[in-house]
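Structure tokens please, single chain.
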Amino acid sequence: MSVSLSPDVLSAVVSRLRAAGCVYAEDEARLLLSAAATAADLAAMADRRVAGLPLEQVVGWAEFCGLRIAVDPGVFVPRRRTEFLAGQAIARIRPGAVVVDLCCGSGAVGAALAAAVDDLELHAVDIDPAAVACARRNLVARGGRVYEGDLYAPLPAWLHGRVDVLVANAPYVPTGEVRLLPREARLYEPRVALDGGHRRAGGGAAGERRGIRMAGARRPSADRDQRASSAAGRGDLHRRWADGMGRQLQGAFRSGRHRHQAAPSGIA
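Here you go.
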């Protein structure tokens, strides 16, 4: 439900957002207006946005691959650039595939896969309880199962050897570079979803390397090799990942029986 207000009220909201540094103040004001049920709701939402909360957390959703994904306060906001990862996975998934989404956050990637491919068996994991609760809102109705825990640890044993596709948008920002992220990411998104640990020579943050080591150790050998895609987007972090992490992914999964994708979505 949206509230109908005079142009003067909308103009006042735009002015507040612009003064707070919102580049797309007009677009954001229209989104707030469409999400507000009353004038009081609109004022409260504008206050939260001016204070620095991500717009998606203020209105309660983000658009991702044409879907409206619920985003709760304190949950990592799905980035549009991560649609590249979803698209690469969708291109490799057949109906009925078994898919695991590690570090799922709100469940946006898994939701996009389930919407695009019929009869998926979808399993999603995150270590953050708030993210798990949010992902369940987005995935259970689509037939997905969401587990709370660290990487592969909470997955049921009967999944071993059955996974066709693994997607992972793991924490990828090296610890020393977290301070360089936009303010709203640093203050209002969970650090566990951003901080990938200390980077070593050869590319990649510790969190990514750990996930790759575990993937290589836990997957049985078989007859098909599907190499991981290189990272999406541009920038130094992506180039480091593509050069260093891409080679590690190919090596770790070379003997796996399943297809897989893994890439960071980009600078937060």
